[in-house]
Amino acid sequence: MSTEPMAAVTKGATPKSQTKSGGIDFALIYRKYGTVLIFAGICILASLLSPTFLTEANLTNVLRQVVVVSLLACGVTFIIILGQIDVSLGSVLALCGVIATSVMATTGSITLAVLAGVAMGMVTGFINGFVITFFRIPSFIMTLAMTTVARGAVLLYTGGAPVSGLGEFKIIGQGSIGPIPISVLILAIFVVLSWILLNKTKFGRYVYAVGGNDRAARSSGINPDSIVVKAFIYNGILCAIAGIVLMSRINSGQPAGGVGYEFDAITAVVVGGTSLMGGTGTITGTIIGSMIIGVINNILNLMNVSSYWQQIIKGLIIAIAVILDVWTKSARSKKKA
């Protein structure tokens, strides 16, 4: 057997991080390691800007603060990989959280409260997914409508007044097992579950397939509508868990809670490397993105930066993340060409 083809391959091989001309492929390096490098850089910068950043109390506080956004981000990762969007996260969070606290105040049972909140999350998720797929309505329009409906429903249900008298409900958001907050353990469980669903199940493979090319997925026997509905239901469940954790942490059912959380969650997902065009994304990247947003929020608060400036900074972050996503995809396309 001739060894010439093998020799040619060996001689022509170049490291994956290099271009054919021998230069470094910065687009590939950014896509693989960019999020981690950004997170490390922000942590180093934060430690230099504030001596209290690396204290145990502050780091624990950061972990508690990122739980809610991270739960939302894990759910909406599935939605964005599918090439869809959900802007109703904050309102659904408030509705599910208030339903849970209301059941808790009435029955005194944490189990019933959690089940009621999760059931409401599943219902809202199913409604979003069904209307989007059955009536072919853009997900942005449908979830924008759900934002108003859910917020109006929770205000109507409570009369605008917070739900109090929650008893032991606060243990979910404020309690700890040893040095580890219970809310962080809850997040860890759902991060692992989300990772398994996305990487080790047929459902996860179908999510990537539908997000990458809806028509090709349909031609191969996949039902894209079913996958979208299931993804929205799962997203609704995580919205409910996030709402329960948030309301438990503040120990009251706040009908006005969750405002703006959808923006932080979507920012975390995009910063974590999930493309708004669909087809690509990871749960690991999403969690790192959530930590980046959490650290940025924390350091801005430690430095007493105005909330108005914080909004501007977050807006710039998501714009830069999208620009980098487009740049890396363009660079890869040119390389293939």
TrEMBL record:
<keyword id="KW-0812">Transmembrane</keyword>
<keyword id="KW-1133">Transmembrane helix</keyword>
<protein>
    <submittedName>
        <fullName>Inositol transport system permease protein</fullName>
    </submittedName>
</protein>
<dbReference type="Pfam" id="PF02653">
    <property type="entry name" value="BPD_transp_2"/>
</dbReference>
<feature type="transmembrane region" description="Helical">
    <location>
        <begin position="268"/>
        <end position="296"/>
    </location>
</feature>
<feature type="transmembrane region" description="Helical">
    <location>
        <begin position="227"/>
        <end position="247"/>
    </location>
</feature>
<dbReference type="InterPro" id="IPR001851">
    <property type="entry name" value="ABC_transp_permease"/>
</dbReference>
<feature type="transmembrane region" description="Helical">
    <location>
        <begin position="89"/>
        <end position="105"/>
    </location>
</feature>
<feature type="transmembrane region" description="Helical">
    <location>
        <begin position="112"/>
        <end position="134"/>
    </location>
</feature>
<dbReference type="GO" id="GO:0005886">
    <property type="term" value="C:plasma membrane"/>
</dbReference>
<dbReference type="GO" id="GO:0022857">
    <property type="term" value="F:transmembrane transporter activity"/>
</dbReference>
<feature type="transmembrane region" description="Helical">
    <location>
        <begin position="66"/>
        <end position="83"/>
    </location>
</feature>
<keyword id="KW-1003">Cell membrane</keyword>
<feature type="transmembrane region" description="Helical">
    <location>
        <begin position="308"/>
        <end position="327"/>
    </location>
</feature>
<keyword id="KW-0813">Transport</keyword>
<keyword id="KW-0997">Cell inner membrane</keyword>
<keyword id="KW-0472">Membrane</keyword>
<feature type="transmembrane region" description="Helical">
    <location>
        <begin position="140"/>
        <end position="159"/>
    </location>
</feature>
<feature type="transmembrane region" description="Helical">
    <location>
        <begin position="180"/>
        <end position="198"/>
    </location>
</feature>
<feature type="transmembrane region" description="Helical">
    <location>
        <begin position="33"/>
        <end position="54"/>
    </location>
</feature>
